[in-house]
Design brief:
Blueprint (H helix, E strand, L loop, with lengths): L10 E4 L5 E7 L4 H8 L1 H10 L4 E7 L4 H12 L1 H14 L1 H4 L5 H14 L4 H8 L2 H18 L6 E4 L2 E4 L3 H12 L2
Parallel strand pairs: 2-3
Antiparallel strand pairs: 1-3, 2-4, 4-5
Helix pairs in contact: 3-4, 3-6, 3-7
């Protein structure tokens, strides 16, 4: 059956009207994605996002249930808290992904949500929202298929999909797309 994905919000920063859009496809459980967010993303943000040269869109990839649960926690704070919660998820990835059984992983994700200022009832509502979980998975499948995403992180820069790369290479592609 078709799942309604119309309620899924694109999480973006930068200039939505910029001539160049960079879409990152990443999983909260992917070590390479955590590495990008600890390093290259900070440079990307400083070089292109903060001054509005690009529109940056973050799209979650769901290869496993803990990645989906983490996304549900990140999205629970809305657009305002999404990137801050994402940062906490990546910084703590090695702890929460190895917490043990699924219930223990969810408990660690709850801690991250509470640390980000989400109240207990709101957080539980987000984690228990099975309709949202189904919509997120269908949304990822549709977008991932359309953009040819097979691994994480992947980047769609000015309409072309690239696999994980070092930031200097990414910067060169973005500079070229901007005509710099």
């Amino acid at each position: 059956a078709d799942v309604d994905t119309s309620g899924i919000v694109e999480m973006q920063m930068g200039n939505p009207d910029a001539a160049v859009t960079v879409i990152e496809y990443a999983s909260y459980t992917c070590p390479h994605c955590a590495n990008f967010h600890a390093n290259g993303f900070k440079d990307l943000k400083a070089d292109f996002i903060d001054d509005g040269q690009i529109n940056f869109i973050y799209r979650e990839v769901f290869f496993d249930r803990p990645g989906l649960w983490a996304s549900m926690v990140a999205r629970c704070g809305g657009q305002d808290k999404f990137f801050g919660i994402s940062d906490l998820l990546y910084k703590g990835q090695s702890e929460w992904t190895r917490a043990g059984e699924p219930a223990q992983i969810v408990d660690e994700l709850r801690k991250i949500g509470r640390l980000a200022g989400l109240d207990k009832d709101k957080l539980e509502g987000c984690l228990q929202d099975s309709d949202n979980a189904q919509a997120l998975v269908a949304w990822w499948e549709k977008n991932g298929e359309a953009d040819g995403v097979r691994s994480t992180p992947s980047f769609v820069i000015d309409g072309t999909t690239y696999n994980n790369m070092a930031y200097p290479e990414m910067k060169g592609i973005i500079d070229e797309a901007l005509g710099s």
